[in-house]
Amino acid sequence: MCGIVGYIGSKNSVPILIDGLKKLEYRGYDSAGLAILSDGKIDIVREVGNLSHLENALNKNELCGNLGIGHTRWATHGRPTKENAHPHADCKNNISVVHNGIIENFLNLKEQLMERGHVFHSETDTEVIVHLIEEYYEGDLLAAVQNAAKKLEGSFAVAAICRDHPDLIVVARKDSPLIIGIGNGEYFVASDIPAVLKHTKNIFILEDYEMAKITPEGICIVTFDGEEVKKDIFKVEWDGEAAEKGGFEDFMLKEIYEQPKAIKETMRDKFSKEDEIIFEKLQLSEEDIRNINKVVIIACGTSYHAGLVGKEAIEHWAKIPVEVDISSEFRYSDPILNENTLVVAITQSGETADTLAGVKEAKNKGAKVIGITNVLGSTITREADGIIYTHAGPEIGVAATKTLVCQMVALYIFALYLAKIRKYLNTEETSAIAKDILMLPDKVEEILSGNGKIKESAENYANCTDFLFLGRGIGLPVALEGALKLKEISYIHAEGYAAGEMKHGPIALIDDGVPVVVVATKSKVYEKILGNIQEVKARGADVVAVASCGDDEIEKVADYVFYLPETPEIISAVLAVVPLQLFAYHMAKERGCNVDQPRNLAKSVTVE
Ligand code: F6R
Questions:
Q1: Which of these is catalytic: 201, 281, 365, 603?
Q2: Claim: this prediction has a pTM higher than 0.85
């Protein structure tokens, strides 16, 4: 997601800000910019593309000054263009702002501000912040930011500067990270610690609803209500690289732990406060939806597993038949599609060659195509007719983790939307299911707290060379994903199978050297899966089970049990996959593998 930086002190802020932005590159971005206050004016330079483009533009401008703010933008509202890049300015170029987060009520605010004569130059949600500050500004920047912050809904970390105050930065935070680095007569603002570590290890970490007035003489931290906040200095003990990973050993682990937040972000623009479901860029009319006679989901790898989960949800709630195909197969098959077929192409990167080719094939045959992706501006956003974004934030680890759970959540909400329009679910039923989906982030958090036990089981099995993963119903895509995660990052041979298929072949593999991981959550096929567990136990295999909390039966047959909080069957896939991600992670670490960059794999598979 976006990164913000700021500097106030006696040095030239430009190289310090650029260096800070470079340390935030890992967050992902598509454009960048700086605003420098000097000689009574604010100069803003913004460029699309990577930071070298911004550096070239800055060199041409010979920009220099002791106070500045900077930003790397990962587009959410509006395309990645120069106009949409931050910093943004008010109507008089008096105030400048950088922002990280999403302003949910920006359309409303924008309308009101435009009625009051404010002129907007970008498509971003951020621009409302600077105009709102302008609206409240009467010579006191802190008060203006404070009043503006109270009007904003959504998430924000904001840094603002004003031409009238050549020695002041005001920052505010709600639901987006913001820290202040304390130097000697100088201060550094950033979205994350790595951006300031070169200069200081002494940090103030702002909490939600806190803001600060920063001058070269000192910092005053207050709440949005103006109450002064006394804060302890946080002393950073990690080095630069560890800090980028937020103190986690690897990006993959960090991303697994980011899942509750990623799911919240994915749900944020889809569930409105008025109990409605919104898909802003779907480009499907209600009539189109009523006319759908078949959904075909295409995807590769982990995204394919999300597709299998999506099938369960769409068929169960919206009663539309769904086929799920691997993109590389679909593109060379002769699929039966027409204008009433909806093709859903799932790709976190938005760049997977086989999936993009499948999209072309589908469009050639007259089908409507919806893309589900995590990357704004990626190729699928141009190729598909409509788009659903998962807002998981950039995923650096090659193995997909947080993007998967967000794909599943996006598909659940989409399935609900289809069901509502096709009148298979009424408002009360939709709201009840939505409530369960909204509880997922807290439940994932609960599972993450059981990491210690999962690590212990991985230590026990780290020397095994073969694994079988079994599941039925909604547990099957989870089992397939568990096997894929294990093989791709630990290089252990793992097969995912429908548990009912065991006696048609794979049971021949079972002996005491092949542990079997079973997704055995409470479901309509629970008794059947217990039977499958007995079959493998009888052949000497160890069993690791993913089960629903309160299930005492499973303790009697499994060697390790990872319990999940209670949740309805269909949406349990989001929960069940989390312990298996952690299991694969710990297995790989035990074996000394590089989990972030497994051999032979790439994050974005742009070739066939
Ligand atoms: C596995 C993994 C891959 C991707 C696959 C599709 O952890 O990351 O299997 O899921 O390459 O990628 P996208 O979703 O970008 O199309």
A1: 603
A2: no
